[in-house]
Specification:
Blueprint (H helix, E strand, L loop, with lengths): L2 E6 L3 H13 L3 E6 L2 H10 L4 E4 L2 E2 L2 E2 H11 L5 E4 L4 H8 L6 E3 L5 H12 L7
Parallel strand pairs: 1-2, 1-3, 3-6, 6-7
Antiparallel strand pairs: 4-5
Helix pairs in contact: 2-3
Length: about 130
């Protein structure tokens, strides 16, 4: 069964071709949200296996959206797009419980690595 991804980005056209192979291979099903209101509504309605939040959304840092999601659903698995160095990323994301991060110019391999990591966290369907 494919993992359910929700990608929070204002730049779907950039990410869509990167994720195409994972969708075709059946590893992931992807849903898109271009603003925080939509993200919060979709997470509330049906928590995805992974929410990937772009560096900026709604003119704000993606970490702000991660905080809002965490307040609403403490069990949501999230990853952030960020080019911060390890120390800066740790400081900026501390307390958010992120399962991973992606560079601002991710490749399909970056997403595959994230899905491999997530497979160890998300229990298989009953």
């Amino acid at each position: 069964m494919p993992l359910q991804l929700l990608i929070a980005t204002e730049n779907r056209a950039f990410f869509e071709p990167i994720l195409e192979s994972l969708v075709k291979d059946g590893r992931a099903q992807v849903d898109w949200a271009q603003d925080s209101t939509t993200v919060l509504a979709r997470v509330k309605a049906a928590r995805p296996d992974l929410l990937v939040v772009d560096e900026r959304i709604d003119g704000r840092e993606g970490f702000d959206l991660c905080r809002k999601v965490l307040q609403m659903d403490a069990f949501a698995n999230m990853a952030a797009v960020s080019d911060l160095d390890d120390h800066e990323f740790h400081e900026a994301s501390e307390g958010l419980g992120l399962v991973g991060r992606l560079p601002s110019r991710p490749t399909a391999k970056d997403f595959e690595s994230l899905l491999d990591l997530l497979a160890g966290i998300v229990p298989p369907p009953a």
